[in-house]
Amino acid sequence: MAKKSYLIDTSIILDDPENIIYLYDNAKNTLCISDVVLEELDKKKTSHEVGFLAREFFRNIGDFDKRATSSAKASKQELPFPPKEQDFLYIAYYESKQGAIPITIIYRASYKTKHLEYGLNDARIAEIAKDYGLTLLTNDIALKIRTKASGLNAQSLFRDRVENPSEINFWHSFLLHKDAPLAQLEKTKAFKTLKEWSLIHIDEQDNTDSSLYLTGKKRFGIKLQGRFEEWDLDTMIDEAAPYVTPINLDQKMLFCLLTHPHNVATIATGSTGSGKTLIALQAGLELLKQEVVDGIIYLRNTITANDKEAELGFRKGDEDQKLGYFMYPLYSAINFIIDSLRSSSLKSYLEYRGNVNTIHKEDATEYFLKKHNIQVVDIAHARGITIRKKFVIFDEVQNASNATIKLIGTRLGDDSRIVFLGDWAQIDHPYLSKFRNGAVSLLQKALATDIIAGIQLRQTIRSSIAQWFGESF
Q1: Per UniProt, what is one Pfam family of this protein (predicted)?
Q2: Domain C-terminal end among 126, 155, 184
Q3: Residues 201 and 218: beta-carbon distance below 8 Å
Q4: Which of 21, 29, 69, 213 is the 20 to 30 Å CA partner of 301?
């Protein structure tokens, strides 16, 4: 296979700096970066989520150490191609576990594209790709289309792409005679091939003298340690006595998964109205009550449908006020619980005083957060800390890259648990899609490994008008 020469766009590095290792492919390809991309990355260093990724890139590429060479000093053999007039080429080395990866830095003192009302940097990146005959690699779809329309070669990086996320299913159905022991189920080939934490649904059978029929009784559970662990969902939930009772099978299974003694990591996806945040919060409260954890941490990617990228700095107010803009799903779940508590007993009414539509509701929410030791944390502040004995709720994970998931996952210390929540069809991140995002990556991992449990919540509880809009547009 012929060696390929790639010009890497900012979006590829901000997706995951380790894409460089993947693209280099053990010296099978040549990698190049323009000065425009370096400038964009430098501006991102102080940002939140993407800032960590930009800094990670610069940490690994260092200061071009003593192995780095400039076109003024390097021999022609060291450079993949000669520099164009007034250009400077520089070989830098990206440090990785696989060794040092050479990257050709292309610096152009004067670009042909001088002024442009929109997309000046994109035009200059494309200019470099054209002049050196490089394949532009970008996850910015607009840049990719403009580049291809001008007759240049441009590609996206489809690493970790999942073609049909809606078809990912953790449920497995079995038929079992009412008089048959569970060991009969466990001996079947279909059961033995299941991964740990597979969700199991059994339809009970009975027979007459001549035929088998379904009794209508259903049994639920999971595969754990090679055995079928049956769950009496209603009894388990009654014993836990959550503030708000899960009302459908999806919610009941999620609650029981999250509170299981052996479960440390879960991915739960579902659209708005599936109740994933409410159930996750209540599971955390149950673990807190059992003293399995001593607090709850809520993380949410600070990207909205109106923001190109998640930057708290553009919001007014102090940091708590800025985070408040993005933590509405948590506050909504807390307020729902408070409303339920206030309507259930006079004691709770007095504890969580205040009417729903007054400022006192804010006080009740703040009181709830402090009472249950719930912390709201910006993802950027997770760097360099170890999260010990906490239940972590990472919401809106579909707007997180794999690198961000790795950042949070590697912060987990002893006795901590984590649940990732998201809707893979609702993407606000500029470089991700419903086929390639943190949520679908985790769903794929949950299908393949025994470490993480997974469930897709397909039942939603919404008003009729909300449901109509969801189905009609």
Answers
A1: PhoH
A2: 155
A3: yes
A4: 21
